[in-house]
Write a structure and sequence with these properties.
Helix content: 40-55%
Largest sheet: 8 strands, mixed
Number of strands: 8
Strand order of the largest sheet: 3-2-1-4-7-5-8-6
Order of helices and strands: EHEHEHEHEEHEHHEHHHHH
Structural class: alpha/beta
Number of helices: 12
Radius of gyration: 20 Å
């Protein structure tokens, strides 16, 4: 049995998946498998994976499932992975040649049941620079939430997790009709109990595309999946490693997202009722701002359509 599974949830990304595959073929260590979870793609993803599998260069597990959103892809992965370690590499990202070697060398030398896994760096694909910079010199281990709440590191990171721990918190239960439920919910559950070994090396090249489009997309996600975002904020207020400032911010977002979802039980359901009540005015202001941004986007789209008639 291999030691690591690299899993890739994908939806209509046949045009980028081969780059991910070629990066895995170039790994200096071959002690891993590749699992592709196809979330109901309508392009030629299935045909592509069949062709790549015929090259017989990697152990590839292809799973096709009904479309359900990103977190359901993670759920499917954790239910099917059989290796001790796992890491997600998105369908438009890829791994540098020594990534698997660095991961497994680090785990063999320093890993134990004390740790949830390993945390390494993501790099911008365009510049090969670490997103948010490197980790501080001398940092050997940390809790995931501490990176943000203690100003240790800002920016995306790559988590390599012990599969058995992720299975304990999976599946992540979402809400009918909502697709944008971040799988970090499961990571934070595990990493609130266990620290991660710090590997100050590039483990993944991330292709962000057009940043302005991403900025606009988050407001649409807020309105399309408000209950999912509210559940994330409830978790943020409940985690043992949350700081006071982090809980305040979570309460503001929680109120805003409950208002979008028209959830009248927002105060009763909060684990931090006084904090939530105090932050409610700011939450209402954020709700109004989100609605304004979405209205602006919809108005802009309507104007473009009318001008093209």
């Amino acid at each position: 049995m291999k030691t690591l599974t690299v899993f890739t949830p994908t939806y209509n990304r046949a045009h980028t998946l081969e780059r991910t595959y070629r990066s895995l073929c170039s790994q200096t260590c071959k002690d891993f498998e590749w699992m592709v979870i196809d979330d109901g793609s309508t392009d030629d993803t299935r045909t592509l994976i069949a062709r790549l599998a015929n090259e017989d260069r990697l152990t590839i597990h292809y799973i096709h499932k009904e479309n359900g959103g990103l977190h359901t892809g993670y759920n499917t992965a954790y239910a099917n992975i059989r290796t001790p370690l796992c890491v997600c590499v998105d369908s438009d990202d890829y791994m540098p040649p020594r990534a698997v070697e660095l991961i497994l060398d680090t785990w063999r030398k320093r890993g134990s049941d004390r740790y949830a896994g390993i945390i390494g760096l993501d790099h911008y694909a365009e510049t090969d620079r670490p997103i948010g910079g490197g980790f501080p010199d001398g940092l050997k281990e940390c809790y995931l939430l501490d990176l943000y709440t203690h100003d240790i590191h800002y920016g995306d990171t790559k988590q390599v997790m012990r599969t058995e721990l992720m299975r304990r918190v999976a599946p992540q239960t979402g809400f009918e009709g909502e697709r944008f439920f971040n799988p970090i919910y499961m990571l934070l559950q595990v990493c609130d109990e266990y620290p991660l070994l710090v590997l100050n090396e590039n483990l993944c090249m991330v292709d962000y595309g057009v940043g302005d489009n991403m900025s606009r997309a988050i407001f649409r996600q807020y309105t399309d999946s408000p209950r999912s975002f509210a559940k994330l904020r409830l978790q943020a207020m409940s985690l043992k490693r949350s700081t006071f400032a982090y809980r305040l911010r979570a309460a503001i977002h929680y109120v805003a997202e409950c208002l979008i979802a028209r959830d009248g039980d927002w105060l009763r359901n909060s684990p931090r009722k006084l904090t939530t009540l105090c932050m409610a005015p700011l939450g209402m202001a954020l709700w109004a701002y989100i609605r304004y941004r979405v209205w602006r986007m919809e108005r802009g789209k309507k104007t473009i359509i009318e001008n093209n008639k």
